[in-house]
Design brief:
Elements (H helix, E strand, L loop, with lengths): L5 E16 L2 E15 L8 H9 L10 H9 L9 E12 L4 E12 L4 E13 L1 H14 L15 E12 L6 H12 L9 H13 L4 H15 L6 E11 L7 E8 L5
Antiparallel strand pairs: 1-2, 2-3, 3-4, 4-5, 5-6, 6-7, 7-8
Helix pairs in contact: 4-6
Length: about 270
């Protein structure tokens, strides 16, 4: 029987990071957890030092590099020297003058024998159900035969709020936040915003009915975009997309997932 190292640390420490640049003012709100692996014979009671790492002032830095920075600082603490560390966190991006983008970023970094970095971006959008639209068109064409002459006019269907999460796993930290956000937005073609005007909301509703999507449609589009935009995967191990549709008239949520593994391109 072999006794493995002990995982210990702190969870859900609030994060609040703010800076200004030529691109505008950016604020991040969320939380992070930081753990270290220590040998069975060593005690780890200096949680205050771990908290200090997560709450220390942050100069301008790429958001993707924060987990690695936290992990590397953690294993420099005397009590944890020589151990490995794992950091995970999730934030909501607030950009501009109080406008809240529905953009949640989650990331983790493991430092040890085999460093591993993960990054995921979650976006929310509005989709319209193509199945119900097909059924409604059949019924409406029976009621109004002239409708057959206008196949491009969208008809009645139900809308649903949907969520897409695109993520990568890599051998080291890579700056893919903007790319993942772009892929998530393009896969939907219809992302939600809390700050949209009535005109923008109505335009979003019309676009969703002009291009109704199933969850598998969104996932396939995201994989296709990843193949198109990631020409050289380099240290990437995999790209993953998950899509959930919070159905408005059904007693279930629809879900799809697809993974692109770069080692074998499957």
């Amino acid at each position: 029987m072999m006794e493995k190292n002990l995982l210990t640390g702190i969870q859900n420490v609030p994060l609040s990071i703010s800076w200004s640049s030529k691109g505008g003012h950016f604020e991040f709100f969320g939380s992070a957890s930081l753990y270290v692996n220590i040998p069975p014979s060593r005690k780890m009671a200096n949680f205050g030092s771990l908290q200090g790492i997560l709450t220390s002032p942050v100069e301008k830095i790429d958001l993707e590099h924060l987990p690695e920075r936290f992990a590397r600082e953690a294993i420099r603490i005397p009590d944890t020297k020589g151990s490995s560390a794992f950091v995970e966190g999730s934030i909501i991006l607030r950009e501009g003058k109080g406008g809240l983008k529905i953009l949640t970023v989650s990331s983790s970094f493991t430092i040890g024998r085999e460093p591993e970095f993960t990054l995921s971006v979650q976006r929310e959008g509005l989709t319209a159900c193509p199945c119900s639209m097909g059924e409604m068109r059949t019924r409406l064409e029976k009621m109004h035969p002239l409708l057959k002459n206008y196949p491009d006019i969208p008809v009645i269907t139900h809308s649903q709020r949907s969520r897409i999460t695109v993520s990568i796993k890599a051998e080291k930290t890579v700056s893919y936040l903007n790319l993942l956000s772009e892929i998530g937005e393009e896969a939907f073609g219809n992302t939600l915003s809390f700050t949209g005007s009535n005109d923008q909301i109505n335009e979003m509703l019309l676009r969703s009915h002009q291009n109704p999507l199933l969850v598998e449609d969104v996932s396939r589009r995201a994989i296709s975009l990843a193949k198109e935009k990631i020409k050289d995967p380099g240290p990437l191990k995999e790209f993953k997309v998950e899509c959930t549709s919070f159905e408005s008239i059904h007693a279930y949520n629809a879900y799809s997932k697809k993974i692109l593994v770069y080692s074998d391109q499957s």
